[in-house]
Design a protein that fits this description.
heterodimer, A: about 110 residues, mainly beta, six-stranded mixed sheet, B: about 110 residues, seven-stranded mixed sheet, four-stranded antiparallel sheet
């Protein structure tokens, strides 16, 4: 079946890099996504990567995709206190209908 | 561009009562999704509409949940009767099409069942 797994918690110091990891099961997923959720807010799309890419960089964000191991990571450079939030990895469903399969979320805590 | 609007923002009800949530998608978005997010978990799709037709409702507990999108624009999600385990945030999202272009989430409705 379709399943996405993430580690639950990450704590870093301000200015350090953060790396959030995710594994997924469906090798036919077209797109993989990273969403950010702040307390009481909806989901904000941070970035996405097409399944035929290995890496995508967008300002402080770097996404790495290892298709062989079905592993996705999000690196945040120069992490700031404003980056504290829950980060969700998601894959597009094999049905390609727009349905997203989410992981359980990684809480990122940034200490000053 | 206005985002996806949801109301109410918060709702507290007693178990066995009924409740309804409303969603207004981004103008022109044909596809509308309702997700349930239980505390500590990622969102899970309940139902997906393409215009006013259902694309996927495989995860919708149909004995108590219902949803409609009569004119292919606004949508309502209803729970009757509510159970304690229905306490969650209900997120509405919309996209231009089933390919997911322009996928945007609303801020959600937080439901507490006591």
């Amino acid at each position: 079946g379709e399943d996405v797994e993430q580690s639950l918690f990450l704590s870093v110091r301000e200015g350090d890099s953060s790396v959030i990891n995710c594994t997924y099961t469906d090798s036919s997923s077209t797109y993989l996504y990273w969403y950010k959720q702040e307390p009481g807010a909806g989901l904000q799309l941070l970035t996405y990567i097409f399944s035929n890419m290995d890496m995508k960089q967008d300002q402080r964000l770097t996404v790495l995709l290892n298709k062989k191991d079905k592993h996705l990571s999000l690196r945040i450079a120069d992490t700031q206190t404003g980056d504290s939030a829950i980060y969700f990895c998601a894959e597009s469903s094999r049905s390609n209908t727009g349905k997203l399969i989410f992981g359980q979320g990684t809480t990122l805590q940034v200490k000053p | 561009e206005a985002g996806v609007a949801q109301s109410p923002r918060y709702k507290i009800i007693e178990k066995r009562q009924s409740v309804a949530f409303w969603c207004n998608p981004i103008s022109g978005h044909a596809t509308l999704y309702w997700y349930q997010q239980i505390l500590g978990q990622g969102p899970k799709l309940l139902i997906q509409f393409q215009n006013n037709g259902v694309v996927d409702d495989s995860q919708l507990p149909k004995d108590r949940f219902s949803a409609e999108r009569l004119k292919g624009v606004d949508s309502t999600l209803k729970i009757q009767p509510a159970k304690l385990e229905d306490s969650a945030v209900y997120l509405c999202a919309s996209s231009l099409d089933v390919a997911g272009r322009g996928y945007t989430f609303g801020s959600g409705t937080r439901l507490t069942v006591v």
